[in-house]
Amino acid sequence: MACPGGVLDDPGLTLARAAVPIRGEARRNDCILQPSGKLREEQVSRQISALGPLRHKTFRLLWITSQVSNFGGLVQGVGAAWMMTSLTTSPNMIALVQASTALPIMLFSLSAGALADNYDRRRILLIAQVFMLTVSVALAVAAFAGLLTPWVLLGFTFLLGTGTALNNPSWQASMGDIVPRENLPEAVSLNSMGFNLMRSVGPALGGIIVATAGAGAAFAINALSYFPLLGALLAWPGAANSQKEAREPFVPALGAGLRYVAMSPNLMRVMLRGLLFGLGAVSILALLPLIARDLVQGGAFVYGILLGFFGLGAICGGLLNATIRKRLSNEAIVRGAFIGFGLATMMLSQSTWLWISLVPMLLAGACWVLALSLFNVTVQLSSPRWVVGRSIAMYQMATFGGLAVGSWLWGMVAGSIGTDGALIASGLSLMVGAAVGLRFAMPQFGGMNLDPLNRFTEPALELDLRGRSGPIMVMIDYRISAADIPAFLAAMTERRRIRRRDGARQWVLLRDLEHHEQWTESYHVATWADYLRHNLRRTQADAEVADTLMRLHQGPEPPRVHRMIERQSAVLHQDLP
Fold it and tell me: What is the pTM of this model?
């Protein structure tokens, strides 16, 4: 069967139509026919269960050991939050415990994402876990020695957040290396569900540990919890690197990630909604020690119970996630999560009874996992593998930026108008976040095939170029009839976005003044290695634009491609006598 259409990155190097051969013949395995849209999603959903990823041995081992680590982290979180209430009475300082954990994730996630896309993710995970183990041991020693002050405690939680910032992009991006793409939504949901399973029991046990043995014991338990996951990571051989392009230098990699996300409308919508959700929803977690102490009149154990019911609600949300996704659109789920969480905060603000407060904590937990897991899956399925670590990192920067700013904001508001007033204000902000969906709706994930095209062949050159040789200028000539100009310009608008997203600079479209049918697309890349990298980043989803341009091009020959290297024409100063 002939391929019905490929993707045109450089017309001189790929096969756009079987009837128009361009430097070689098409191979049958270049064309993969897949059921499209809703039909394909229904076929996949019949084959996958919510626990499907656990059939993969590596995922199962890492998942189980990560729950032990999650348990330790949650116990540590209870210890840190409750110790702060004993070190200070300031609502702002108490809320800053949550901010000090989220702030480094906002600051350092992009750098961690660039590392995740260019280096061995397993090694990065090991480094992050060892770093957090070291910080946890130091925190436990400082607690037992009585050396903790409010700012010292915030410093330690900031360092633990830094380790989390390094760990998270590699961990999330590794899910696509461990399980097949069709299992990815379930893998992300299982990770979230597992964390919240621990959240349903960890905080309550953490409250008992803090009440009976002190915060130092909670910190020591957290330090011990890293060892099983370290063992599992050492046993995992890691994913084979199938990336064909050369490793990108660190600073250009940061720019490439920022550029890709900025030029991807779907990702920008996720970033915006994640920021708004984090900003409003963090109020419960940031103010929960005050809710337990001032509104419910309880202690560390009550704080743990409240947080445990938040985790129990999140487990329910995780279990219902797959069913809800089949029945509702992504936007309906996210909008419902905003509204549900907003109602939960308002209910909490009016309750002074523990058993009544547990109901909104269940609702908040379910909405939390429904929103954040959907954001995460959408980012992963809207990003090709070469940039998925940086995409996840920037999503986390947006969401944890909202968490960090929100923790500080609601702490300040609580200090001014009380905890109940801050909860009402945060609930209203979440209602605004739901309304934003009317203008910036969440995309449906899975609609684009972002697998690499794998049809690019490096051209034979007469000049001996190195990877760093450049700058490179590329010009592609088209012949377009007058009747097709509107369609051509529309396709070129999308082509410009794709080119710039994948690294092209100074993109322009030119029209010949003497030959009105002649159009030329022109762009620059910094080096020859960047040019090769630019073409290897082309995905199956870009095929529609390329096919449109090939159909519009007139003449017996395909569009002509000119690849040129810029050379200095002026006499250099050092060459003058």
Answer: 0.69
